[in-house]
Design a protein that fits this description.
It contains ten helices and twelve strands. It is α/β, with parallel strands linked by helices. Strands 1, 2, 3, 4, 5, 6, 7, 8, 9, 10, 11 and 12 form a twelve-stranded mixed sheet that branches. α1 (10-17) packs across α3.
Length: 305
Amino acid sequence: MPIKIPMALPAYNALRDENVFVMTEVRAEHQDIRPLKVGIVNLMPTMVDTEIQLLRLLGNTPLQVDITFLRMGSHESRNAPPGHLERFYLDSDYIIEQNMRFDGLIITGAPVETLPFEEVDYWNELASVLDYSAARVWSTLHICWGAQAGLYHRYGIPKKELPAKLFGVFPHTINERNTTLFRGFDDEFLAPQSRYTASDRDAVASHPELSIESETPETGVFIVTARDGREIYVTGHLEYDPTTLDREYRRDTARGLSTAIPRNYYPGDNPLKAPVVRWRAHAHLFFSNWLNYVYQETPYNLEDL
């Protein structure tokens, strides 16, 4: 079954070209099932690319998913085409004022991780979204800085700066195999990482409400859950497409930053060669497992949240 998005959204044609099943509002009106309602708080600098990456994964299950894009109204984004946010996004204040409910919510990463949380110009607004999601969303998936922000706001988990940018594709293992998130996973799986900071592992491990589901000595904590899966924190980027790390590397190099070549990404660590994608299958499986969990557990009537 498809995701439902407007035909005018740039992601629509891109996903149709990939044979991802997308649906217009007109066709969706004739479906006789209740679709899942998923909100996406898109804080990434590559805003349209992130839309495509997430929609690609959300559109790969038998479920119909209605997508609502959300933005921080208190922040002026310079990373979207003119008029894009006004046309396709709702302010987060609006969904809170309207008491809107979602089966699932995704909060992306953001290019602000080296700043103290309280110095981010939209921190108070994001904190309100985090509080709102605890009561009006069945399961919230936090990605990269979004995961750090959620762990800090809800549980006081601090972040620390890494000696160098954690950058590349790394093997990860699973601590808790009996969770629905990892149904069908191999003993080891790969996932991209791209960050300068990390949530404090000891603080996470010592908190009674948090469970570390996946981690490695090299990358630290990768996936943390709370409230039986109603809160999911992913420190990496399973959603990244084949060339995202390449674009980041070339962007950093053009800016004169001393960013190392992303590890385990280019054949022979040679950036002149095309990267090899080795995380896509587990990315699709992870998002499918999450949507299936939400579908099975969320109340049919969202007013019961």
